[in-house]
Amino acid sequence: MSGGVDSAIAASILIEQGYNVEAIFMKNWDEDDKEFCTAVEDYKDALQVCDKLNIPLRSIDLIEEYWEKVFKIFLDECKIGRTPNPDILCNKEIKFKAFLDYAKEFGADQIATGHYSIISNQNGSFQLKRGQDENKDQSYFLCRLNQYQLSKSIFPIGALDKNLVREKAEKLGFMNHDKKDSTGICFIGERNFKNFLKKFFSIQPGEIVKNNGQVIGEHQGLMYYTYGQRQGLGIGGGYSDYEGPWYVSDKIIEENKLVVVQGKNNSELYHTHLTASNINWIAGDPPEKIKNITAKIRYRSKDTSCKINYRSNDILVEFENPQFAVAPGQSIVFYDQAICLGGGFIETRGNKNIL
Questions:
Q1: Residue of 112, 149, 111, 109 lying closest to 127 (CA atoms)
Q2: Active site includes 340?
Q3: Is 78 noted as a catalytic residue in this protein?
Q4: Is the CA virtual torsion 235, 236, 238, 244 positive or negative?
Q5: Per-domain residue ranges of the chain
Q6: pLDDT tens over the chain, length 355 residues
Q7: What is the 3-state secondary structure (H, E, C) of 254-313?
Q8: Model pTM score
């Protein structure tokens, strides 16, 4: 029970269905910054919902687990110029491991969350499917779950639209019915990313260069920039006859250089291939059919058809259409129509048949 409207309605639905429900509020981040850390207010909202539903609310401290299993890895990835997605690790290590282990210790049969995804049991084999609300579908963030985790989980609102969830919450008298959706880093919240990371890194400025090597500016540290980024580059005029905006196309880690190109249609921003490692197949084994598979290279990207070739330590993914701003460190997630097959971490990208 996070204090948000989704977990609140998930709990109410389970009660309607006859489950014996208890709620758990997780504290995963230790922060004195009241502007961004909303744990106190979130707990009040969770308590109000539980009072309405007449169910107990427990609070558990998973700060150490979150730091060790999620945030330290996030920092390590940022440090080497990659673009990690802590929400995916948080689901695997915290919500569906530490939380699941805790729940089972005090006798729970299953855990439930307010995720917009659907779990289907096909003769003992569990499938993860996209949520009914396409705009809220969260299967991308759940791509590293396994059969055991799915077998012990319930997603009560997976087949609902967000608007209906809010309507239900208002009718039930939940104070959080119109609460803003949480954004930003999992359990840390939405904040100025650069200022936040400065707490953990020393600034290492370097050159901003065109792809021909010409120096046209200075960056404040490669970890503060993402592939395809347009805003906040601080590049002045006079470096090109073309008036188009500048985009981050690459990072030369060993030289601490940020490479930029002009115009969103620049070919340097698009890639036809990538390699991915540490692949998690939700079914336990790779899919028997690897035709007609689609992939997402980030949460809000559109599905694109692709081909998968297995190699010794990774896979080579070939896209039907070149993809914008493929980012090493991000997750690529595979689908067979509505079924989320799993995913892996992007390592390299390119425009050749062999990377």
A1: 149
A2: no
A3: no
A4: positive
A5: 5-193, 202-265, 269-350
A6: 999 999 999 999 999 999 999 999 998 887 655 555 577 889 999 999 999 999 999 999 999 999 999 999 999 999 898 999 999 999 999 999 999 999 999 999 999 999 999 999 998 899 999 999 999 999 999 999 999 999 999 999 999 999 999 999 999 999 999 988 875 555 555 556 677 778 888 878 999 999 899 999 999 999 889 999 998 898 877 788 788 899 999 999 999 999 999 999 999 999 999 999 999 999 999 888 777 899 999 999 999 999 999 888 899 999 999 999 999 999 999 999 999 999 999 999 998 654 4
A7: HHCEEEEEECCCCHHHEEEEEEEEEEEECCCCCCCCCCCEEEECCCCCCCEEEEEEECCC
A8: 0.92
Catalytic residue among 78, 186, 306, 340: 186
Question: Does the 202-265 domain belong in CATH 3.30.428.10?
Answer: no
Q: Could you tell me which CATH number the domain at 5-193 has?
A: 3.40.50.620
Question: How is domain 269-350 classified at the CATH fold level?
Answer: Elongation Factor Tu (Ef-tu); domain 3 (2.40.30)
Q: Which of 90, 143, 306, 340 is catalytic?
A: 90
Q: Residue 77 is encoded by which pair of tokens?
A: 């990835």
- Tell me, what DSSP letter sits at residue 156? T
